[in-house]
């Protein structure tokens, strides 16, 4: 039995473990290999979203992902422990609770803030590098505003409400941007004048997020200034105290009062990775040097991934950056190479990262991005930059926790977002009390039951009806579309056949034109008829002349050749098939209606209602006076049965039973 031990359940650690398990399962080698992942927390933290919790944009739990859920149904041993040291000679990881032997070790311990030896930073500043950091900072911000609201001394109030963020990289800009977006909300809540709040972003760098093109950095800074943030670049921090920060520009050192200093000025490898320097080859800030296969340059049984990697790809001048995309790609290569070494099958793969861009958010409504393919990057405007950010997060969640986390993420970022702090605003978070939808749900259900019962009365259980049902509808549309064309075409024929004087031609055309109008009026009126590349035809007609038409006269149809083929060659292929389809339609209508009336399985019932409506639109068309059923189905689709419906009682029980099913846990086919 080979043992693979992974230190750390961050981005790279989780992905390495999952990829190892998936490939070994596929090769049917899981009985020969044990995978263990060690972390001090029972959850994975979305480090790139910490600022959202710190500034109270999303719930605290939205950035935590349970390791138990991540590895449910997978042969990965999750161990909660703190790794104190590694004995490379005996191949053992020494934790606070036990020791863990390994044949292959993956160092994915991640990073921690670095303070550059600056006095007072570790003691007096607030960090943003863990779930706990974000929660502590959120509570700190709230506490300061509560205290400031009751503070009679104006100078003391301003000191409490002075925030310095040290660092203008990704974390610093996103933190100060999120704070600046949150401050007006707190000012209104605690009745504090916005002018009493000071927000400053400080960095030794010449501009914000220097990995971005200067044009995008300027946009970031302009946005921060617009939000009331002061930026100071080319300025160093030489000291931090309980209520002050010392800044140095050139040779001049100045002290400024500060209620809160948030340190985001840089990172270094976690202690356990940095401590390997005696046995492995490390460099500045504790990163471990690797070969092109991501093995330690000193020990081939030790692989390094994520932030702990120090590797300069061929043709590059700088080491791979400490960013999420590096974590994802290094996990892929490390997993492949470990399996190749364990099984003796396949060749080792070189690490050739291809990064696809960077993006930074300034609050929940604005962002900039430079994305694309290597050597072919483009700048995205704010809306698309924010869209790209959320899309990339969703792609990551698919790998980690599938549908479960995607549902949770979309819910937190859009459907329950507070104070419209999303690039989509609050359009999707405005809520209608669900009890107001109860009458609509019940009425929609009653109409479906009525439709089904009436079809039984009309003999749908007795004899084939669909040929006449579909044929009559098609004939009606054809009579309007083709009948009008034939009548109006007669004008041209009459004019062409008329001879003699010009007056005779005019009289002939006028008489036939009048006849055409009469025919058209008796048949109906075509409002529009659009055909798109012969894929779909949009038909909108009235059974009367337009001036005297009501909603019950206006009809809309989608004419789709594929649907027509299915109806002609499958549904109408025999009397037996027609009877089967008729019975199925009637039963579906009645079951949908009863489900909606009772509020049981409301979501699938509403979805089935929409499917039937779509089928009718594509075959017989729908009169406009029944279109309300489509919109009603959409309105009650999500949660319509949770109020005064059986879903209120049944769904919680069903959810518990569903989550116990093996493949459901393995593929994350549930939501919390």
UniProtKB/TrEMBL annotation:
Q: What is its EC number?
A: 1.6.5.9
Output the superkingdom of the source species: Bacteria
Q: Which UniProt keywords apply?
A: FAD, Flavoprotein, Membrane, NAD, Oxidoreductase, Transmembrane, Transmembrane helix
**Looking at its record, which EC class is this enzyme?**
oxidoreductase
Q: Identify the InterPro entries for this entry.
A: FAD/NAD-bd_sf, FAD/NAD-binding_dom, NDH-2
- SUPFAM superfamilies recorded for this chain? FAD/NAD(P)-binding domain
In which family does this protein belong, per the annotation? Belongs to the NADH dehydrogenase family.
Q: What is this protein called?
A: NADH:ubiquinone reductase (non-electrogenic)
Which species is this record about? Acetivibrio ethanolgignens
């Amino acid at each position: 039995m080979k043992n693979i031990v992974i230190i750390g359940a961050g981005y790279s650690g989780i992905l390495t473990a999952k990829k190892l398990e998936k490939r070994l399962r596929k090769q049917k080698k899981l009985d020969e290999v044990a995978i263990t992942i060690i972390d001090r927390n029972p959850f994975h933290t979305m480090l790139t979203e910490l600022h959202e919790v710190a500034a109270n944009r999303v719930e605290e739990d939205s950035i935590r992902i349970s390791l138990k859920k991540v590895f449910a149904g997978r042969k990965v041993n999750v161990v909660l422990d703190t790794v104190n040291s590694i004995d490379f000679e005996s191949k053992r990881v020494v934790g606070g609770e036990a020791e863990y032997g390994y044949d292959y070790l993956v160092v994915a311990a991640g990073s921690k803030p670095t303070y550059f030896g600056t006095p007072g930073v570790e003691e007096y500043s607030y960090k943003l590098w863990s779930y706990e950091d974000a929660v502590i900072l959120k509570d700190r911000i709230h506490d300061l505003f509560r205290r400031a609201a009751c503070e009679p001394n104006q100078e003391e109030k301003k000191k409490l409400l002075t925030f310095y963020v040290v660092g203008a990289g990704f974390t610093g800009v996103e933190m100060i941007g999120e704070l600046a977006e949150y401050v007006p909300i707190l000012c209104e809540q605690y009745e504090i004048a916005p002018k009493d709040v000071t927000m400053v972003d400080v960095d030794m760098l010449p501009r914000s997020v220097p990995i971005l093109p200067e044009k995008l950095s300027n946009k970031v800074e302009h946005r921060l200034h617009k939000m009331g943030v002061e930026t100071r670049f080319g300025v160093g921090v030489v000291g931090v105290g309980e209520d002050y920060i010392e800044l140095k520009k050139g040779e001049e050192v100045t002290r400024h009062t500060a209620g809160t200093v948030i340190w985001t000025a840089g990172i270094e490898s976690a202690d356990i990775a940095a401590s390997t320097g005696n046995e492995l080859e490390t460099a500045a800030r504790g990163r471990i040097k690797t070969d092109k296969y991501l093995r330690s340059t000193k020990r081939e049984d030790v692989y390094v991934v994520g932030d702990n990697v120090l590797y300069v790809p061929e043709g590059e001048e700088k080491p791979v950056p400490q960013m999420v995309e590096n974590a994802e790609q290094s996990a892929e290569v490390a997993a492949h190479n470990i399996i190749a070494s364990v099984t003796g099958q396949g060749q080792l793969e070189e690490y050739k990262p291809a990064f696809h861009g960077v993006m930074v958010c300034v609050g929940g409504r604005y962002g900039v991005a430079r994305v694309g393919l290597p050597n072919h990057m483009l700048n995205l405007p704010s809306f698309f930059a924010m869209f790209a950010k959320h899309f990339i997060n969703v792609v990551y969640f698919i790998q980690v926790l599938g549908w479960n986390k995607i549902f949770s993420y979309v819910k937190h970022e859009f459907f329950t977002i507070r104070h419209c702090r999303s690039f989509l605003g609050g359009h999707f978070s405005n809520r209608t009390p669900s009890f107001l939808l109860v009458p609509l749900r019940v009425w929609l259900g009653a109409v479906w039951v009525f439709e089904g019962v009436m079809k039984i009365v009309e003999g749908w259980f007795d004899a084939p009806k669909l040929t006449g049902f579909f044929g009559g509808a098609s004939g009606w549309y054809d009579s309007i579309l083709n009948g009008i064309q034939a009548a109006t075409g007669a004008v041209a024929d009459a004019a062409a056949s008329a001879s003699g004087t010009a007056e005779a031609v005019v009289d002939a055309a006028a008489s036939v034109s009048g006849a055409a109008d009469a025919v058209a009026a008796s048949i109906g009126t075509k409002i529009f008829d659009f055909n798109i590349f012969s894929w779909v035809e949009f038909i909108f007609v009235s059974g009367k002349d337009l001036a005297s038409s009501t909603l019950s006269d206006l009809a809309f149809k989608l004419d789709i050749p594929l649907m027509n083929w299915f109806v002609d060659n499958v549904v109408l292929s025999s009397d037996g098939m027609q009877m089967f389809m008729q019975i199925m339609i009637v039963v579906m209508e009645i079951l949908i209606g009863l489900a909606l009336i009772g509020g049981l399985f409301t979501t699938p019932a509403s979805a089935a209602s929409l499917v039937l409506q779509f089928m009718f639109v594509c075959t017989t068309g729908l009169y406009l006076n029944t279109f309300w059923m489509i919109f009603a189905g959409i309105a009650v689709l999500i949660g319509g049965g949770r109020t005064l419906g059986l879903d209120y009682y049944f769904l919680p029980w069903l959810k518990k039973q569903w989550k116990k099913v093996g493949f459901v846990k393995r593929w994350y086919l549930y939501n919390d």
